[in-house]
Design goal:
Blueprint (H helix, E strand, L loop, with lengths): L1 E4 L7 E3 L2 H12 L7 H16 L5 E6 L3 H15 L3 E6 L8 H11 L4 E2 L13 E5 L10 H15 L4 E5 L27 E6 L11 H5 L1 E5 L4 H4 L6 E3 L19 E6 L5 H13 L4 E6 L15 E2 L2 H7 L4 E4 L8 H10 L2 E4 L2 H8 L1 H8 L7 E4 L3 H8 L3 H6 L1 H12 L2 E4 L5 E3 L6 E2 L12 H12 L6 H17 L9 H6 L7
Parallel strand pairs: 3-4, 3-6, 4-5, 6-7, 7-8, 8-9, 10-19, 11-12, 11-14, 12-13, 14-15, 15-16, 16-17
Antiparallel strand pairs: 1-9, 2-10, 17-18, 18-19
Helix pairs in contact: 2-3, 3-4, 8-16, 11-12, 11-13, 16-17
Length: about 500
């Protein structure tokens, strides 16, 4: 059944990497059915193409040499039957393709299709549709000999104004990690009428993280009536879902919802800690305390009178029972507080300079690694550069394998990791990682990470699982940006106070 994947869906959806997807496909192919898997895929692509481009008079179908190209040939045949003028590039060879692809090619040869050479480009309008069926799951295995014509066709298609539909995955996008392969990245001016991706049989992680969101546009999923095969292999990751709505019991008090203590805000950076505290205050913490490291801090009483400004003695007293956010704008002054929090705090959120301190002080890193064994929980919210410092690698290496990087960091530090970015990754020891689908580029401004740290703390009720807490906070943080009024500037201070629904 064809379904559109919406970032605000209520159920978490399973994602399978390329290896698992191939095994699931093999299992589906082992049970012969009529119509065949390729026929079902092609007809699904043709139906979706007509839905996204209802006024199309022409279709341009780019077919690679493998089974993905066979899906494209089936789609081309189905579109021609619907009366469209269909232009086709096929990079395959009838003597070397699979039996299903050969059958699709033979059928296509009997259809009123217009066959093109690599250097040919049809002239399409914005109402028409381009279908990318070049490589699919097999793109890593393609030889250099096939790369040049693929590149030529891709760059020609990028210049087309027509609607774009990729079958399974956009050519050149890594299935597992959502990064572009060399020479396949589209130009900055790439702008078809709309972009769509039809993921066949399985949903893939690369569609939802890194470059995936920009590359894929609207994502659709068609299981091709093979739901039984999907049960044979566990998910490689999960697409994070909207948290279930909750209601506060009437018979409750501020102590029912825990204290949040924010420690940070060195001279010149007090705003980061204030943002985290403001978020915790506005998103449900029972009490919010703020310990600024600036010895001459600005007064915040006029703007945040509900936030308690903690003294050194009261901060020490709260470390052992509050949910502590440590590091927002902390500078080097955060180190002694971090050492104490790692030892005493039952629920600890680490961001910004706390993460940089961990990367450079092995003793503090070792203290963090032992917390989980003591029944203490930690959530880290690094951006890719901070994750790279903790892993001892480059930012590019983190971004090239975001799921692997997040899970490696979670296992090494025995903590929950929220690797921020497009499609934030939530990873924990002994958990299958989640990819968060909410959020947009309006979050790419200073301070929104501090808001996330405060939101994590506000959502982290005493004794609540750290992984589910991080999943909830990441989803809500992105959803706030998704619902932001288009005519209103998004700032971190406004985001800190925004609400998805009336507070209950």
């Amino acid at each position: 059944m064809l379904q559109r994947i919406h970032p605000h869906q209520a159920l978490a959806l399973p994602l399978w990497n390329a290896q698992s997807s191939r095994l699931i496909e093999q299992a589906a192919l082992a049970t012969p059915q009529h119509p065949s898997l390729m026929q079902r895929a092609g007809h699904a692509a043709a139906r979706l193409a007509c839905a996204i481009a209802p006024h199309a008079r022409q279709a341009w179908v780019l077919c690679g040499p493998g089974n993905n190209g066979g899906d494209g040939l089936e789609a081309a045949h189905a579109l021609a039957q619907r009366g469209l003028t269909v232009w086709v590039h096929w990079l395959g060879n009838a003597e070397h393709c699979s039996p299903d692809t050969l059958r699709a090619w033979q059928q296509a040869r009997q259809s009123p299709l217009h066959w093109l050479e690599v250097h040919d480009t049809p002239t399409l309008s914005a109402d028409d549709v381009v279908i990318d069926a070049l490589l699919g799951l097999g793109q890593r295995a393609q030889s250099t000999a096939t790369t040049n014509p693929v590149q030529q066709l891709l760059h020609s298609s990028y210049c087309s104004p027509a609607h774009s539909l990729a079958i399974d995955i956009p050519t050149g996008l890594d299935t597992d990690h959502g990064i572009w392969h060399p020479h396949c990245r589209p130009p900055d001016t790439w702008g078809p009428s709309s972009r769509h991706t039809l993921s066949l049989l399985t949903l893939k992680p690369g569609l939802f993280t890194g470059d995936g969101r920009d590359a894929c546009g609207d994502i659709w999923w068609e299981t091709l009536d093979c739901d039984n095969a999907l049960q044979l292999h566990p998910a490689s990751a999960w697409l994070n879902a909207a948290p279930a709505p909750t209601q506060r019991p009437h018979n409750s008090h501020k102590g029912s919802f825990g204290d949040v203590l924010v420690i940070g805000g060195a001279p010149g950076m007090t705003g980061a800690a204030i943002l985290a505290a403001s978020t915790a205050l506005h998103h449900g913490a029972g009490r919010t305390l703020l310990h600024l490291l600036d010895t001459a801090p600005p007064s915040i009483c006029s703007t945040l009178p509900d936030v308690m400004q903690a003294s050194t003695s009261s901060t020490h007293a709260h470390l052992a029972h509050a949910t502590v956010v440590c590091g927002c704008g902390g500078g080097t002054a955060i180190a002694p507080w971090l050492a104490e929090a790692l030892t005493l705090t039952p629920q600890l959120v680490l961001d910004a300079d706390a993460l940089n301190t961990l990367a450079h002080q092995p003793a503090l890193r070792a203290s963090l690694q032992t917390r989980r064994a003591r029944g203490q929980r930690t959530i880290l919210t690094p951006h890719p550069l901070e994750a790279a410092r903790l892993l001892g690698c480059t930012t590019a290496e983190v971004q090239a394998q975001r799921l692997v990087a997040a899970q490696t960091l979670a296992d090494q530090l025995q903590s929950t990791i929220v690797l921020k970015g497009s499609g934030s990754i939530i990873a924990s020891p002994e958990h299958t990682p989640h990819i968060n689908p909410t959020g947009n580029a309006r979050l790419a401004i200073g301070g929104t990470g501090d808001v996330l740290a405060g939101l994590v703390a506000a959502r982290w009720r005493p004794g609540t699982d750290s992984h589910s807490t991080a999943c909830q906070a990441a989803w809500e943080h992105g959803a706030l940006a998704d619902q932001w009024p288009s005519q209103q500037a998004l700032t971190a201070s406004a985001l800190a106070q925004a609400q998805l629904t009336p507070f209950q």
